[in-house]
Amino acid sequence: MSPGASQVTGTILVADDQLPNRELMEELLTAQGLRVITVPDGAEALHQLQRESIDLVILDVMMPHLNGFEVCERIKADSDTYLIPVILLTALSERQDRIDGIKAGADDFLTRPVDSVQLIARVRSLLKLKQRTDELERAESVLFTLARSIEGKDPYTHGHCERLAEYSASLGEHLNLPADQLIALRRAGVVHDIGKIAIPDSILLKPASLTPDEWKLVKEHPLVGERICSPLKSFKWVLPIIRQHHEKFDGSGYPDGLRGEDICVTARVLQVVDVYDSLTTIRPYKPAYSITDALQTMKQEVARGWWDPRIFDEFERLVRNGTAEFLARGAIAGR
Prior knowledge:
Blueprint: E1 11-15, H1 19-30, E2 35-39, H2 42-51, E3 56-60, H3 68-77, E4 86-90, H4 95-104, E5 108-111, H5 116-152, H6 160-174, H7 179-191, H8 201-204, H9 212-218, H10 221-229, H11 239-244, H12 265-279, H13 291-303, H14 309-321, H15 323-333
């Protein structure tokens, strides 16, 4: 390691069918204080990813059975591994190979013969990026755990967060929302009510009607939730959902009294599925509604001006035309 260089740690997985190449990579990387695992082919690389906690993968492109492009594509298609950086290592320099690597999701490319200085610089850069990603994932995990702990206080809402995440993402897909908004809907399904952490259990679980002061406190939870989640830059598209999920299309909601399309589309999506899930599950104050009764009740609320008519119409079609598949996704998520 060069003098003054900051310590970067991690586990590197190297897949190359040539033993001399594997030995060279191991020598270069272990000299930097890194743990190195070497494997002779792509299939073994995928196997190691299931067994070990890997921070960076270096793949030779020209391997038998599964080449580097195929292994990279599988890594990036798996929700458990897609954030792991991948470097493709090749003796080829044709433009099409670079394009194929980009399509497979590669984070960087190196050409043989390997320049050791360039290799170490790129490995260190990607490991730093992975460390930041891991920190972000840990922060998100804490928020999700906190949100589920709030849900866990009330046995009647068990599975509500997971069902909302599935329902809202499914509805968003049918509305052709972009990928970043679908991700935001999944996250918001879990954390939308995280602000209720500031509400005492005596109010949150109160079986009787709330007093005006208690109701005022409850209505602050979208703002509290927004403040809790605001430090996370990855929650850029989640924050407006948290703040606006209790607004109503006619402007009678809270906390800002927004009206119509001033309410972000993702919040309007979450509102519809939130109401549906509340109606179709047992609560202390009511039995579970049938699908038909729930949709009829929501249709009446749309007529009052509460929910976006266009989004509700799409939701109703989704439920009526694909009830089994749609409800199965929510039911599985809620287990």
